[in-house]
HID1 domain-containing protein
Amino acid sequence: MGSTDSKLNFRKAVIQLTTKTQPVEATDDAFWDQFWADTTTTVQDVFALVPAAEIRAVREESPSNLATLCYKAVEKMVQGAESGCPTEREKQVILNCTRILSRILPYIFEDQDWRGFFWSTVPGAGRAGTDELDDDDGARPLAESLLLAIADLLFCPDFTVHSHRRGPDSVENMQSIDSCEYIWEAGVGFAQSPPLNYIHDLNRTELLRLLLTCFSEAMYLPSSSDNNVLNPWVTFFCSTENRHALPLFTSLLNVVCAYDPVGYGIPYNHLLFSDYREQLVEQAVQILIVTLEHDGGVPHRTPSPSSMEEQESAGPENLFVNYLSRIHREEDYDFVLKGLARLLTNPLTQTYLPNSTKKIQFHQELLVLFWKLCDFNKKFLFFVLKSSDVLDILVPILFYLNDARADQSRVGLMHIGVFILLLLSGERNFGVRLNKPYSVHVPMDIPVFTGTHADLLIVVFHKIITTGHQRLQPLFDCLLTIVVNVSPYLKSLSMVAANKLLHLLEAFSTSWFLFSVAQNHHLVFFLLEAFNNIIQYQFDGNCNLVYAIIRKRNVFHQLANLPSDPASIQKALQRKRKSPDVISRTSSQETVSMEGSHPAVPAEPGTLKTSLVAIPGIDKLTEKSQVSEDGTMVSVSKGDSTHTAHSDQTAVAGTSDTESNSGRENEDVFYTESEMERRRLSSASSTSFWAPTQEWVHSWKCKLPLQTIMRLLQVLVPQVEKICIDKGLTDESEILKFLQHGTLVGLLPVPHPILIRKYQANAGTAMWFRTYMWGVVYLRNVDPPIWYDTDVRLFEIQRM
């Protein structure tokens, strides 16, 4: 039978299914076998031959036929898992059932009345006629039978793994197989690397695609702050019911971290054969990020012995999370970190031969995986920061942030990159590592500079703030918090970076910017705090910053004398209406960008993006810790306000002055971006919204931490002016030389304790990650388009 004939038969069966008003008996094998008998269909064929409208029609008009089709397909999968698919024909049946279920499941999930179908036991659906299914198995919900069958099939010799058979007559029994001996790739907990077999890779990819589709029920539930809704598919698959949980987790992690897209360094290698391993790696990383969910979205904390008993009864432990949190060998950490760094750096590597290296597209999934590793395994986080290897993660993140800054369809990528840097910046070692000289020179659309990784970070952040799109404003607090967190450890900023920081202060301290939004003054507090940290703790190497502060001293004097009378406030706000630009682009001395770099560009028209929920304010995202003399961190309670240089007495708005509650009293309500936009516009138009007052300006102005800088200016400005007059100097190198050897010991106020704002998990960020991650999965699975045009509720799909 030719392939077109068999496709016709398949299509004919689909039409019969939609047109038959009478239920087809489950025992009518001749009818049902048409759906999986064909030997030549691909997953793309199945999507083309089973149109959405027809699936919905069967669902509405002959529900029992849809139910039987699902049941029969699962039954075939279960039989294949039991027999081990010894013949080619059986393997083909399994693949066809896999494709049909991948096609149908989203339409089951989008209808509330059907969502429970897979979790019910199917009463008498042809079960009387089939003796293969044991009684105990007969009582399993369809979803459980399907998930267990997929797990078994992922370790099926000669189908998805290499056979270990000794001779032609010996058979490997599927029930007694020890799947830990069949892990797909060497790495964590497994030493042998099985030979590559692209057929196995293809079959694994198809099964993982179905698994991902099973897990995607999460997309059809609206985003809510109630994170305790567990995904039943993930919960069951990652429980002790799945005897392959450990080898499968290990296989997925190892396949991802061992992947080298460049293919042994041969240019153009990827053009010669389709890379089946890449498709497998993409599905594997997507399965990992959606299964590694906190139980019920509750932030993961190592239980104390007293809470151990409650832990037991608190519901099933997700084994994937459990295994991830228990990885502990240095060589395993090294394997994972090197693998992720290699893959994240891949899109940055430019060779002189165009298209000669393969560029991977799944960097967003890799960033989520890196985040989850650091979040669930604190020892891994410390390992990352122990050496300068962390910089191999930092540089690609800064590259992505810089590259995506003008593209509104990539706002999620901007957030995950900033969240990772915020998490890292809470650890002292991160700031210390940033002092390593930066010499890689990845082509980036930023000014050329000579300096350290700290300089790179500051220059990129400046570029994001001054030339990014409007939607990035909620991230400004996070960006500057990162700068404050690392500032006490920065040994010597370059002149370029020092000027960028002062340009930000200049832009943020204009009266119209300070008076136009209730939280804008926090940005000034963050910058002053960073300057104070550097002056107090790293004065010796930072003559460039001190010189830049002296040159821009009028900015500090203007801040100290900021007029707050009603007339001045009005005048400032009128100036704002004339220049609607967020931040003045002037006086930033834009220099030539690096050679070979491309400017950041907006999204192409027509680009699809998925909406995100709003992120909590910086005060909800972080908790304050004070660094004590011996370098350990002590958490600062919210009530204790004496610790900072600008003691955080509660301001008028009812929040401390460096933190924002930016209208998020109702932070349990999650808004999609379009709703946020509507709210912003309506609140901007209603005049009663918010207006700056003299009392309000005074409430925070009196707390500006200017003492240290004013003292520095008082001591150094006369000395610098004297040198200039005495030597007739206009040459900055002489002044820098003087500042380098100058000292302020005993002249500055007593150093304040270092205050670090550490990232803290909460329900808001957990929900943000869930919507972001599923949005990425939705957009990346376009061939076949698994969820396209189904009624997804977790996010909105928007066209740019």
